[in-house]
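ok so for the tutorial part 2 we go from a plain amino acid sequence to predicted structure tokens. step 1 is just haveing the sequence, like this:
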Amino acid sequence: MPPDTPPAPLAAPAVRRLLVWHWGRRGGGPRYTLEMARALAARTDVELHLSYSRQSELAGDMADLARAAGRPGLPVDTYTGAASAGLATLRLPWLIARFAAYMRANRIDTVVCTMGHVWNAAVSPVIRRTGAAYALVLHDAQAHPGEENALLDTLARWDVARADRVVVLSEHVRALAMARFGLPSERLTLLSHGATAFPGLLPSLRQPPAGRPWRLLFFGRILAYKGFDLLLDTYERLRRRFGDRVELLVAGNGDTAPFAARLAALPGITLDNRWIAEDEIGPILNRADLLLLPYREASQSGVAPGAAMGGLPAVATPVGGLNEQVLDGRTGRIAAAVDADAMAAAAASLIEDEALYRRCSQGALDFARNALSWDRAADGLMAAVSACHTVPAATRSR
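step 2 — the prediction. this is what the tokens look like for a chain of 398 residues:
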């Protein structure tokens, strides 16, 4: 071999030892983690390890998956609410030591954080010290309006800076991540948010309702950026147009006091204002005919792919990554503008055109099973993991 011929690159190991890590307790983070971990566990090129909160609403499912994989994983005690968070933080140095010891004992080569957590910035520095690579799934590149917090923003920036690869779930977040964090495109991987098969969700072709009202659904936390005022304006217009042929279910927790008078004045609204347990989400989606996403701002939606898995057409505003998750005329409708007239017109087009409604239901099922499948998401994540290891170990996790 001529002396100036560069050595052949080292072959990637046949099996990657992945520690999938998320210490959140409720909401989309634990569900995303569980679905991605299940897809990774089915692969022959992954030795799966899990680190999760024992206080997670999906801790039992995580433990079952860890047992099925034949590895104990690293479940940790976090906290149960704001009151216990301060005391729990005092135990953080001990948790960090356990985290590092687990990585070394199991020769973890890559940590995949499936969603950020307030403790991430304190824990992620040990990843570099163990010699592992770090891939971070960044769901939001900036706080939603009304949720701004300078401390949390600083912690998130530190965590992003340490990641060898940042995974984003929409083109919208990809552009924001590049602008806000100065991330070059070569450090980013774009995946679609997988379509969650919530417990009890029926993946079936929907038919327009006959002999009963159309059931419109708003699901999730009731927050300013999710456009609750716009939802009520939209529903008011639909009631004018269709009368008692439409009704609305609002299922989720949040402060509805500012809207009490409007809620009382509008007929046909059922308000289920509480945290919705995981095993209730599927049945709620099953009963609906249209999902309404009247957001004023969005990164992407966790419920939209789940609705698609159930064949439920959605109507969304043209903001953030929603138009990447709701395909206009194929899986639902994208409103022409962020206002009630446009949202109502988009919803009305599905109510009045039964053929379009059926096409969108079938399109949603196809979209969920193919483009939004968790196997496909796992393929993309493993490509991101491979890309992590193209970074020289000495320069990882800045």
